[in-house]
Queue: 4 jobs
Job 1
Amino acid sequence: MIILLEPICSSWTHEEVNAGFLQLIRKNSSDEVVYIGEKEHVRCIRNILGDSNVDYKVIAGQMPWQDPDSYENTASYFRLLCSIILKYKPSILFVLCGYRPCIFAVEMVSVLFPHIKINLTIHGMVEKYKGNGKSYKKLFKFAEYFRNLQFVTYSPFCTESYWGLKSKKFFFLHHPYINFENKIFERQGRKKEKITIGIIGACANDKALKVISMVNKCELTQDYEFLVISRFGKYFGHIENVRVMEQEFDRENKSRLIKDMDYLLLPYGRYEYALSASGVLWDAIANQVPCLMLDSKYFEYYMSHKIGYQAKDINELSNIICKKIQHNRGKSEIFFTDMGKIEQERDRTMRQMLLW
């Protein structure tokens, strides 16, 4: 039996990546699968995948969110993990999201149940700019003592060598995405009256504000707008050529809005998304929308697949955007090439995680 446990996220948080992860397991294993999470989160996963030969179970009471990156919650995670293992007796356990106390609890559980393979997924909490790098380094170093524990990362740069580990502890998995399609996208020169550049979620940052300001200073004859869909939208509403939408909207509406965008702005610098992944990038890939990016290493890694345009700084990126707005009716361009290679690598990594 394979158990997938989402101990932290509720409702729609991480629903797409977790649904994609679950779909990958169903694709690459014939074992019985149980997905366990908060009630509304489980409902969201089922809405995406249906039952899909998966047994869904609900956590009785959501895990603590208050001060989630402290060790005070370790006992709660430990009790939850032990109860699940004793009840279901899985051969493989995937813990889909883990702050420091959850990682520590998983390590203790690894001692008690050495016969169970445990894979713990690492998200953005390990990013250096968030200030907890030393703590995570100690936890990962401690994990070297447990042969039955490994980590799943969605970044090719979150490796053993980065954390100073001697043993193999990290699987790099291309970000799972439920709507991923293996095909080449040809972007036609679109005859729209207004060019739309999307800014979604955390992409609505201070760099995005600077980019919009610089683009607005260009003398453009073509109409354009920046469409902001984010809880940070309140900082953009007063700016010229910006339209802000409410953050809360359903999946179908989100997909429709993204498909109607000409570009997605992903203004992350060199040291952002160094150790984790951007779900917005995979929104762009799934919905065939080319990206406008700064020099994040994570986005640079995928540039060989022609995911869009990347610039070294805000000034260069603003110039690229101005040119694309002004000449959007030009010849067609090919984007997102050889994505089948990513799909194959994703499947291969999942099989390795199931067999190690």
Job 2
Amino acid sequence: MRLSVVVVTHLGGDWLRGCLSALKEQLGPQDELLTVVSAEPGTADLRDLPAGEVLDLQANPRFAAAANAGIERARGKWILVLNDDTVPAPDFVEALLAAATEPGLYQPRILLADGSGRLDNAGHGLWPDGFNWARGREAPDGPAFEAPGQVGACSGAAFLIHREVIARVGAFDADLVAFGEDVDLSLRARRAGFPLRYVPQARIEHALGASHGRYGAEKVFWVERNRIRVALRSLPAAAVLTLPLWTGARLGLLAAARARGKGWSARVGPEAIPAALKGLAAGVACAPDALRKRAQDRGEWALGERAMWGHVWGNRVRWRELMR
């Protein structure tokens, strides 16, 4: 089988129906479409779904575990993982597959679904403490995002992955629960030598925050907790040893931006500050587990410390991006 598409839904409804309708027209007889319902019984609107098989988990284990259930069921050589609040352009699937010339992860151009012509992201950049930053977030789409190339990490909202990658490094780490699982999988794949590539010809719209919001305290908690786990598991030793310095610099820049009324840090409420502190504490508490997984992964690493640092630094988030 050429391709399996795994769409994870929490609420169902019109966004899911729009996503499945757009996909139905692009899939051939050798492809499969699977909707994974990650919701308590009766809470998701699953009426009149236009296409595909439904895997109803009868619970909400959150995104990572739900996506893994779909990936385990999938039979395709390539697996396309999508959020339910995405709507692919008519040539999306073929453009993505045409660029997928070797096993790896492939990131499309993700546009905001608000009609503004702005980007959700063109892949993620990295801060050396494990924090990721959506490249191009809310910037006007244009020539700056036309060139294909490597990215620091792929977005979990929409990415293509080869089965060989999963066989080597596994799927999502369900211990992350939510947020950051895409960066974790990306960096584990990169450590194992697989490419992380941006495919600008493959366009898809995303209703960012449709399910969980953009700037809530819960998201801040999971982002801070999980980026520590990601850093300890996959980043080069130089980044791990200097983690407090990088975190202090990042939080300082975000605080300065907030004081100026700039950036996403100015959009979160005061409850985000204690949430971030709780996330930091939770991340530190998870350090033994993350380091144990690092030791387990090491046998699959193809990139040494210098090469992995080159990946992080080559795809680094500039401080001006944090401040804008």
Job 3
Amino acid sequence: MRMIATVNYHLIKACNYQCQYCYATFNDIREKPLSLSEQIKLISLLAKSKYFKKINFAGGEPLLVAHLPKLIKVAKEEGFKETSVVTNGSRLTKEWIYSVKDYLDILAISIDSVSEGTNIKIGRKERGSEGKTLDLDKIIKISELCHAFNIHLKVNTVVNAFNKRETLTDVINKIKPFRWKVLQATKIEGQNDENYSKIAVTNQEFEEFCQRNKKYLRADIDLITEPSEIIQGSYLMIDFVGRFYDSSCGKHRYSDKILKVGVENAIEQVNVDADKFCLRGGDYRVKD
């Protein structure tokens, strides 16, 4: 398999949001996450394999992992050129940013809507609450800290049936990410297929969202668009029990556990399309 340089490590199944389009609910897995010592060993193996230059910590919601700052530090010390975190933003604080500022290269925040009602429909609200959604004023302040500490800010947006007519450029231009990744809601069997009919958008609706928002976007923000056909099979991922997986066949396909069989043996058991990875702009660098 032609290797790609970025690996996405989904540390945890748990999430405080319930996004209907979620690509990684892991409802098909009943095992517990790796322990801290096992996570550190796994990160070390990945770094020493020399396959990867970037590690992206994801979830669930990765900020529910209290020792995430330690894992980011370990990844840098073990040799990853770039570290990244993708988060729904709800647990971000000034203190957390200070705890990772020396080791975190990229922070990706998911923003799907500026409307509380739309976020609630999507499922972007705290579990068990009456509708506490993302605090955009807080995110603006967090973005200012990121820029001050040279943490490269990204925004991820999933276009779905509830937000397809929105224009988000006012808030995107205000927080000034270097990349805005816009993804089409995509059906993944065993993850979001029960809700997919409610949140699906056509290719034309997705393209209209992208073109409308591109029209008003700052010239220095790189807009990356990912339709469904590019998403499937272009990501190399690791689940929270320590297995590589891919979605090339429209569902998660898992390898043996990396700590048991090693990086090289496990990676041969999944299939990732390196051409799609490059086509969606995945092979970018913020540091040499």
Job 4
Amino acid sequence: MKFPLQIFFIALSLGVLICETNAQTYSCKISGRVLEDATGKPIENVNVYVSGTIWGTTTDEYGNFSIPNLPSGNHEVVASIIGYESKTISVYLKDSTSIKLTFKLKEAHYELQSITISGKAPAKWKYDLEIFKKRFFGQSSFASDCVIKNPEVINLKWINPHHLTAQADEPIIIFNNALGYKINCILVSFDWDSESLRVQATVRPSFTELTDTTGALKSKWQQNREIAYKGSLDNFLQSVKDNSLTQNGFQIFLDTGPESLIPERRLRHLWEPLANKTGNEYTISFAGFLRVLYILKDPANPETSWIKLLYPFVTLDQYGYPIEALPFDVYGYWAKSGIADMLPKYYSPVK
């Protein structure tokens, strides 16, 4: 039996700036300007944000922006406004640093849309949109509570009978009513292969907390966020970094692959620590596949995932996030996740 889905959400880098100091606090700052590429004139009201987080701002009339109180590590800083091509600059921050960036945005030349949502959308496009949403949101129970507010910006195209692609010229606006976030998501690319059951998506999202107008939603959002976090890949990697896999409900085994029929009793059970620490960084290395069981939710039927490194070793930063781009493939439970389960980077459950 094949596992149902492989999904990867990828942040692209356009360059790396390195700054260095020593402390370990949320004390970094990114500031700068956004200008027109052709004229050099400042652009007002540009959204500038750290991809995958709740941190962002808009430019003033002079094109200036400032994002303070950032943690150290790798960040994708995005500048986006309708009418211009968005741009991303990758930065690697050491603690207590302040850097300045200059974004030069080119005017966008959009292709004419094939459908108009205000009219009657073609039945085929609606059918394709439902396929896209199912794979993009993922297969968790939270997917049904996600709504795309501007589906008309999504361009859907079948490359062949088994391969659906999607792209959007403007950020897709998603309301995740299960986790309590509005997500402005730049969709760079999306590929769904129905034969291999493989999804690859390149996104640059920004998160904004929804307002609890009833007074009854905040606790439910918090509960759902903890459900989404526990047993997730982020939780696993942070547990690897903290040497707390057992405490957080994870069991790990070396395996020959997700389709292996080898009984678990013949697998090699690994024990902590899985990572080696050097300074503020942690390296993990293993051959083949690592089978990961999360047992706290349902010990009798643990959530089972597999992870395979795409490098001889992978480096985690001091917060448990991989430094390498596209560091591994995932299968099983983790591969069923999508935007519906996505939490802002650096999310931590309330203690």
